[in-house]
Write a structure and sequence with these properties.
Blueprint (H helix, E strand, L loop, with lengths): L21 H4 L9 E12 L7 H12 L6 E7 L2 H10 L6 E5 L8 E5 L3 E8 L13 H4 L2 E9 L2 E9 L12 H18 L5 E7 L7 H10 L2 E2 H4 L3 E2 L7 E2 L16 E2 L2 E6 L4 E10 L17 E9 L10 H59 L9 H51 L23
Parallel strand pairs: 1-2, 7-8, 10-14
Antiparallel strand pairs: 1-15, 2-4, 3-4, 5-6, 6-7, 8-13, 9-13, 11-12, 14-15
Helix pairs in contact: 5-6, 5-8, 6-8, 8-9
Length: about 475
């Protein structure tokens, strides 16, 4: 979904849960104890030999984090493991626990540093990551993924996620939109299925999506994650919480059109559980160049959220939430219908490209067979000479072989992309069916289907 020109994120954040009445929460705090957790997130733009002032900026990032003011650090685009090891050495005392998530050809670029011990980690690589032949974009080689770390914060278990989704290189003609929608769908699935036993969930990273984009809405609606920028009553940073601003010297202002001032694509999201409550007391972003330095930490602005975790007693009697659940189910049906439309656009494009690769490969094969027939003429007709120059003949044969190999690889790639898109669309279709049954109040019958009577066609339960 395209954001209207001139759209800005609401500037008035929601009231924090601390100001809500006990009757609305239906929860009771066991005591007044709380754990303050300061979360930091930054896209480091760390492409060695290509990113400007890369080594100097890593030194600045290390100096900032080594002050010990941040409890959890979530970094993206740390493309070199050597740079990660340099940060790890520098942060050995301030954030002694760390993990680097490896994926793809050059790595996922995801890293986490923490004051709290990391008990377990897991990496999920998105099934779609762009196109390998778009080497100048490089997303496919990075193997975009989501990394999870399980931390013990006081008496609470927190699942912390760091992720980086496919970039949006052209908003008007975004050929990667289906990929990013599928990535957002897989991200919410991964978070939902891995955080069921967690007391608190914290997500940070570069989503490459505006607040009102389809993928962002799917992620928040399905998981119940809250946006730290919208939840806090104290914000200090760039206007409208923007994290890609025109004032950043590393930014090409043409990339921000039609949003001249900037966009907000980096987030810190969170949610609690029946066992724990999580609030955002304040949030801040950097504002371009670092004081007393000629350039900023990155081409993105860094985010810092001051969170407060509190344990809760068991839930008391709750009000009937059927109306609220119905509204949420209806919202999810609309979102998934929109998402399926975008995925189907990607499906048609993938099918078209696979057909083109198949047709081109068939033409190359036909030309190669024709050459073989011509080469066999002198053998069949004794005394006949080769009608074509030998060099040109070999060059044309080599070209045919290159065409065959290239189109075969493209056919395999587009088949893989097609299967991934079809799989995501099937999952969304099943999810829509379940939501519609919930809206109708129909209980699902799990008994096996009996054989249809003679002369009658069995119905398809998935349609």
């Amino acid at each position: 979904m395209a954001v209207p020109v001139g759209y800005t994120t609401p500037q008035t954040p929601l009231q924090t849960l601390a100001n809500s009445g006990s009757g609305d929460l239906n929860l009771r705090s066991m005591d007044n104890s709380a754990v303050a957790v300061r979360v930091f997130s930054l896209n480091c733009w760390g492409i060695r030999f290509l990113s400007k002032q890369c080594s100097q900026r890593y030194a600045m990032i290390g100096d900032l984090l080594s002050s010990g003011e941040h409890d959890i650090v979530l970094l993206q685009e740390v493309w070199s493991e050597q740079d990660f090891l340099g940060l790890k050495k520098k942060l050995a005392f301030s954030q002694p626990h760390s993990h680097y998530f490896k994926s793809g050809v050059i790595g996922s670029g995801l890293a986490i540093f923490s004051k709290y011990r990391i008990h377990d980690t897991f990496l999920y690589r998105y099934s779609l990551n762009g196109y390998p032949y778009m080497a100048h974009h490089g997303d496919w080689f990075g193997g975009k993924a989501v990394g999870m770390a399980i931390l013990q914060i006081g008496s609470m278990t927190a699942n912390v996620y760091v992720t980086h989704l496919h970039a949006e290189y052209c908003r008007e003609k975004d050929s990667y939109l289906p990929h990013r929608v599928v990535q957002a769908w897989e991200l919410q699935q991964f978070i939902r299925h891995t955080s069921t036993g967690a007391d608190a969930v914290i997500v940070g990273g570069d989503l490459n999506m505006h607040p009102q984009d389809l993928g962002t809405r799917i992620l928040r609606a399905y998981t119940g994650l809250k946006d730290a920028y919208l939840e806090t009553s104290q914000f200090d940073g760039c206007e409208d919480g923007m994290t890609l601003i025109a004032d950043n010297p590393f930014i090409n202002k043409k990339e921000l059109v039609p949003f001249e001032k900037g966009i907000r694509i980096d987030y810190i999201l969170f949610k609690g559980s029946p066992k724990a409550e999580i609030l955002c007391d304040s949030m801040s972003t950097t504002k371009g160049s670092v004081p007393e330095k000629p350039f900023p930490y990155s081409d993105h602005e860094a985010l810092t959220a001051n969170l407060r975790l509190k344990t809760l007693a068991s839930q008391e009697s709750r009000l009937d939430q059927s109306d609220r659940d119905s509204r949420k189910a209806a919202e999810l049906v609309d979102l998934l219908t929109e998402a399926r439309t975008e995925v189907k656009v990607g499906l048609h494009c993938s099918e078209r490209m696979r057909y083109t690769a198949t047709r081109t490969g068939a033409m190359g094969l036909a030309l190669l067979l024709l050459e073989l027939v011509i080469a066999a003429v002198p053998c069949l007709a004794l005394g006949a000479e080769q009608p074509f120059p030998r060099t040109s003949f070999y060059l044309l044969a080599a070209l045919c072989c290159v065409i065959l190999v290239t189109t075969f690889l493209l056919y395999l790639f587009y088949t893989t992309e097609l299967k991934s898109l079809q799989g995501a669309e099937d999952q969304m279709r099943l999810a829509v069916g379940g939501l519609q049954e919930r809206l109708r109040g129909v209980s699902v019958d799990h008994t096996p289907l009996r054989k249809a009577p003679d002369g009658e066609e069995p119905f398809d339960t998935e349609e």
